[in-house]
Design a protein that fits this description.
The strands form two sheets. Strands 1-3-6-5 form a four-stranded antiparallel sheet, with no helix packed on it. β7 and β8 form a beta hairpin. The protein has a domain of 99 residues: Immunoglobulin-like (Sandwich), CATH 2.60.40. By secondary structure, it is an alpha+beta fold.
């Protein structure tokens, strides 16, 4: 009976290790982030946008531009902003080598009076990875 229990424990351990390895083959790293087999490189044409001074309630639209300088298609998996008032829209199609892509961002200043400092984090197959993008300015209160 002890042998059977030991065999079961060893088999369970080996099987659970195999499941973790299968996840990695599916394109997910151990921490749950997307994993890409073919990395490429990216050159940022815009990484900071200072919109100056606006009045509360105005919306700021900006397109952060980047160029795929690598040899493989650039895939933007996700883009997340530091707060819900800033909405990034990533390109849905891969950016081919040599092409320029844009990450559209809309900042809604309603209720955001004062200095604005919004960051956008991009997950892609670029190596080194995208820098943190910055949208900044000042929002004046309604008069």
């Amino acid at each position: 009976m002890k042998k059977l229990l030991i065999i079961f424990c060893v088999a369970s351990t080996l099987f659970s290790c195999d499941i973790r390895n299968q996840k990695n083959h599916l394109g997910v790293t151990a921490n749950g982030a997307p994993r890409f087999n073919d990395s490429t490189s990216v050159m940022m044409l815009d990484s900071v946008y200072d919109f100056g001074t606006i009045n509360e309630g105005e919306k700021v639209n900006f397109n952060f531009r980047f160029k795929n300088t690598g040899k493989h298609p650039l895939i933007v998996a996700s883009a997340q902003a530091s707060c819900g008032c800033t909405v990034p829209e990533k390109p849905e199609e891969p950016i081919q080598p040599g092409e320029t892509g844009v990450l559209k961002v809309v900042f809604n200043s309603l209720g955001k009076v004062g200095p604005a400092h919004k960051t956008i984090n991009v997950v892609s197959n670029a190596y080194p990875s995208f820098p943190t993008l910055l949208l900044k300015g000042v929002v004046n209160g309604k008069h």
